Structure formats: structure tokens, C-alpha cells
Amino acid sequence: MTSTTSLVTPRRPWVNRRNVYKELIPTFGIAGALAVLIVNFTGLAGPLGSYVAFVAAYLTVSFLFGMRHDKIKAFDKVMTTLICAGFFTAFIPWVSILFTVFKRGASAIYWGYFTSDMSVTSGDDELNLGGLSHAIVGSGIILLIASLIAIPFGIITAIYITEIRGRFSGLVRIMIQSMSGVPSIVAGLFVFAILVSGRGFSAISGAVALSILMLPTVARTAEEVLKLVPEDLRTSALALGATQTATTFRIVLPAARAGLVTASMLGMARVAGETAPLIMTSFYSANFSTDTSGHPLASLPMYIYQNFSNGTDLALSRAWGGAAVLLTLIFIIFTIARLASGRAKG
Amino acid sequence: MDDATIQTGSNMNTDANTAPQGGNPLDEGRVGINGLQTKGVHVWFNKHHVLEDISLDFPANSVTGLIGPSGCGKSTFLRLLNRMHEFIPGAAMAGEVFLDGKEIYAPDVDVTAMRLKVGMVFQKPNPFPSMTIGQNVLAGLKLANIKVQDKDSLLEECLTRAGLWKEVKDRLKTSGGSLSGGQQQRLCIARALAVKPDVLLMDEPCSALDPASTLKVEETVVQLSSDMTIVIVTHNMQQAARVSDHCAFFLSDGGPGVIVEADRTSVIFSTPSDPRTADYVQGRFG
What we know:
The structure holds 2 protein chains of 2 kinds. Chain A is 73% helix and 0% strand. By secondary structure, chain A is mostly helical. In chain A, helix 1 packs across helix 2, helix 3 crosses helix 13 and helix 4 crosses helix 10. Chain B is an alpha/beta fold. The chains are: A mainly alpha, B alpha/beta. At the A-B interface, helix 8 and helix 9 of A face helix 2, helix 4 and helix 7 of B.
């Protein structure tokens, strides 16, 4: 402490640093050594095998450390270790997907990747040619139109269920719930039958297919969010002489604003990577375009799918690059959702 | 229950003769066409009969306290007076409620306009969290689309009448949630006052407050009663004695709640005619 005027210094007596040196680090070290032995002398091998060996060793060592006190302490330590191990294990697929996608996709990504399309480039050309600007813009257009359809209807549905509480709200709820189980390919086939068949592929029909998939996510999340708005607010607004419309739009929706943004973003993230319905609706085009009707329109999932179908090494690298861009896009959408809900609260 | 007992709505004759001129002890000739009256009110929740034959006149410009043990239907009765009762699923009623001689349950009554005349303050302070203190006070006007020329002076007037102006005048733009519980409750009172109601219904407004805040709210109630009709539900006998001019004692002996006695507060607390009232106000039960 640099301050000499105050004799009282803030302390955190509940933080026991000695535990870190006397228990945590020794446990870690012994478990690590044990894990090395296990990997060398048993069939467990590779990164995953080492991980399993380390978790088993750590469990044993922390149990033994706990037994220096008593059984209850030992059980507590084992449970803590199990929970932490479960947490890290859940992280493995997440980290390995991210790692693989960005490692394999890196070779395809260069500046021109974001500025050029595939109109004069083939999937198996060198990686310094062509790009996916057409797919990014196409995905953006399709997502935007899908959101313009699904978000208002989703929120209106949620308002019907939670605010109007009409005669059919139970039925609507069940329908929305079962709608979230509609396989995406069925939605695609449905839109193909009513919009594409005879007219050709278009961004609009792709957006309609995605909005069918997006609606239940938005509606159900928005419903949960509106339910969290305290009943008191509705009652006091009504008692002030507000109509139900004024109560809903001036009191309830503003109170739930942050959550509604999150609901919308979750819906967008849910459909951003959908491929099956797009095969049947907007399909794929190698050209940069912003036309929403009359032609097929590229999208990121379809770009990945097309290059994957091509099958050559260079095309596969392009597919990984597209996957990296798609993941980044979804990550950006989630970040915006978090920021929006955080800012509205503060 | 059979259909005949359910309120069907009738009687929009505004003739003063249609208003009940009961032999109610509270009615001392002050309640004419102006004021709040109930006549033969019953309430059901589904098949459960919770209030039976409540006829009360609320004298204008005075405070009427509704007292009685928990579960005797006081709050239910209060919510009936500005039609907040009907938001409870399964609720039904019979009888009539008159505001200024008009039946408020008549089919052609504009419910939201009626609620502007009959304000309400709830048990738990509930300022709108997304609004500032100033916006909270004026929320009723905004919600009902009422235009006001001088918002600032109305704001000051309402907060002054609610006894909150001095405490918040320098932070009108901060959130209503930053106030203490007692201040929040007075903010809710100010919010109810802003739409200029004739009647203010208060449902145990002090039960969530500390003694100092309770005292301030009580002072506010007494001051407001000089030009408003106030109906206050309270569990606190001392509070009823301090703030009310008239009292109605509700009781339920397992069946539907009834009014045992209604009279001037001084009479209820000194020489009640029913022994059950005497027992209750002296704290022997309930």
C-alpha cells in the first residue's frame, strides 16, 4: 500500500492463497506426472487419451489430498474436479471445430476473397483467384428478407400469446412449438412447391423458407422474454387508464426491448447456416448479384456445399474458407445480440 | 352459479334517482350525484363466492378505510371499483357500482376513460423501470394520449402533492428505480395524480414500507383528501384510525365476505355497535 494516511488496508481474508501453493499446484503437478506415466505405459495415446488420463489422475490425486482431512472434504474435492472436467470436456468439440475450420480455411482466405466472386473462376483454380463476395452479399440479402418476415410475425405471435391471451393462444403456442420441429428440408420442399416450381430459383423464395424456420425461434424466445415482464407493470398501466394497445406498445415492449433484440438475433443465427432449404429455393450462382427475384442467388452455405461437391483439394480449401467466414458471421450476429441486450439494460 | 346472478349490465340512466340512496351509515347526505357508491355488490371467482351484498357510499373529499382480516375480500372489492377486477380469470360479479351517478359496468362505458377518473395505488411500489422519475409521473398522460400545455408545472404540482418534490426535484431525469421504496410509492401516487382523478384507490399502500415512509404517505393521503375521494385498504388499525374519516369493517366467517359495520372512524374505534368490530379494532382477533 502506498497510502500512509490510512492505517486500514483492504484485505480479502476469504481468498486463501496458501491453498494454491499447497494444494492446487502440487495436485496439478502430481496428476500431470501420473498422466505421463499412464500414457507411456498403457494403451491410452494421442491428445484425447492424454486428456482422459490427466482427468483420471487429477480425480485420484484430489481425492487423496481431500482424504488428508476427511471423507466429506474428499468428496467435495472430487465433485469440484468432476464439474470442472465436465466443463472442459464440453469445450473440446467447440474449440476443435473452431480450430479446424480456421486452420483449414486460412489457406483460402486472402484480401480478394472478400471482394471477388466466382464468375470467372472455377472451384479448382488456384486459391489466389476468385472469392465469396457474392455469397456474403447473397446470404445477407436472404437473411435480411427472412428477418423482415419472421421477426415482426414472431413478435406479434408472442404478443398474442402473452398480452392478448386470446381464445386460441394455447393452440397457437402448440403450433409454434411443433413448427420448431419442422425439418428444414421440408420447409424447403414446401417453398419449392409453392414459389419455385415453374418460376425458378430466387432469393425471395430462399428467404421465405428461412423465415418459416426462423419464426418459431423468434416467437418462443420473445414469448419467454415478454413473460418476464412483471405483471405489476401491466396492471399499473391499465389502472392509469391506458388501453391494452398502449400498455403493450408503450410499457411492455420497451421493458422487454433488450430481450426482443436477443430473440431476433437468435432467430437469425439459427437460420444463417441452413443449407437444405436453400438448395431448393435460392440455389447458387457464381455471379455477384443483388437481384432478389428471377435468378438463383448465392449464399455462404451454398458456396460451401458447391465447393464441397466439386471435391478437388483446392475446392475443399475454398469450402473451409467459406465455413470460417460463415462462423465469423454467426459470431458477429451473436456479439451484436449480446451488446444490444447489454446496452439497453444499462 | 346461475346466470341471473351475474352482472349483465343495465341502467345507464344518468338520472340521480337511479343512484342508490341507501340507508347506509356512511351516507350523510353528502353523496349525491357526485361520488362513488356500490349497491348490492357480489363477487365470485369461478364458483367461489367471495363477497356478498356489499352496499357502500364513499363520501366525497374524505378518506374511507376498508379494514378486516386477510382474505375477507377488501382488495377484491377495491379492484371492483375501477374495473381492475375483470382482468382476473374466472372473475364474475353482481350488483352495481356508480361513479358520479353512472353505472361503471354499463355496456357503453369507456373503461379506460373511467379508469382515468378512478386512480389506483398498489401494495408494491411499481414505477415503470424504463422511464425516468419525470416520465413516470407523466406516464398516465402519455399512455392515454392526453396533451398538456405546461408539463413542468404539472410535474411539480403532482410531485408536491405526493410529498416527493423536495426529494427528487434535482434528479427528475434519473430512473424511478433509483428511489427508496417509500419514495417509489409516493412516485406512484404522483403518477396516479397526474391524470387528475376524482377518486384514488389505495391497496395497502404502506405494507411494503418502513415506518418513516409510512408516515409520509399517510400525511400525503390526508392532504389529498381535501379535494379527492380516497378509498384505502389497510391491515393496520392505527393507520385506519389516523388517516380515515369513515371505516367499513369486512369479515368472512369461511363463507363470502360481508360488511359487518360501516360508520365514522371515531364511532368504529370507540363505540362500535357490533361486538365483532370491537374485537377486531381492539386486536382480539384477525
